[in-house]
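job 3f2a | input accepted
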Amino acid sequence: MRISEVEIYRADIPFKDTFLSRMNVRAAKDVVVKVSSEDGLVGIGTTSPVPKYLGATQGIIIEGAKFLASTISGQNPFDIEKIHSLMNDALADNWPAKAAIDLALYDMMGKAVDKPVYQLLGGKVRDHFYTQFNFGMKQIRRPTEIAKIAKKAVKEGFRAFEVKVGIGLKADIARIKAIREAIGDEIILVADANRAWTAKEAIESIRALQGFNNIIFEEPTLGLEEMLEVREAVDAPVCADESCHTLKDAREIVKKKAADVLCIKIMKAGGILNCKKIATLCDSFNVLCRIDGVPGETLVSNTAGAHIALNAKTLIPAGSGVMQHYYTLKEDVATGGLIFNEGKVTIGEKPGLGIKLRKRMLTPA
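job 3f2a | predicted structure (365 res):
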């Protein structure tokens, strides 16, 4: 089986509501990659630009994918390690473009052997996991409104929440307090500072907030040395996100013991293959991980994240984010995929990623 064609599309999708973070994403400008084999199989992958976070716009990703198309043409999709080496030799960085191609190849491989993608990763170590709801910049609203949103999300089944912090300790306390009073102490909170604090500010803020229980503090500072200083000074777990893009980054964090949890994302790692490697590293060193996405992700990439999460041994019980498509996009480029029911995410037995494209939403790039 050989790759015969790579097609690239734009998919511009409005958000349901203003969903902003410090990454300043206002709408989904996704890229869809369709890879065909000479014997008629088709694999689908998508990627979502967040320029401030991933260093690539929609246009940069499209041009990167076009450039890489000739590199992978004629290759056997099952030679996935070789294909990644070829892509890395041909083009530095542009991990979102490589991610879309990687997803399409895994989708194709699964279809070729009539197995879901998680079987290609070694099978499921769990039947389901609980996913999170991300408030985005909804934290700028009044605490009472945040509490109302949280209650509604709990009724929809969410058992973990991510909320932005770092815009002022008084405001952070008010929001976290309102959320806790609305949803109780058992549900996990991921408090994401997006590197907003210095080490001193982070220690002060986390000590003030950790009493609200069951909180993971994500990327509190800029730089691993400061994050290690914070981790050693507080009782709550610290999670690495912006500092953990590649396998090399993950190794450095584990070596320095700078974080309790690694946040693994398809878009920053460059696809399923590299995410699997980071998850295996976590297992080897008994480090927790969470599988997350970026604003604007589609059902396609979120489903890929769910396949990884079902296979990752040290996944935290709740707090992985694979529902960005559900609570941010007005419409999606695909149907099928992951199954979300009462907060639980699982995957069926359909081959590959188990998704079907809505062609009407695609514009040739």
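job 3f2a | The CA atoms of residues 45 and 104 lie 4 Å apart.
job 3f2a | closed
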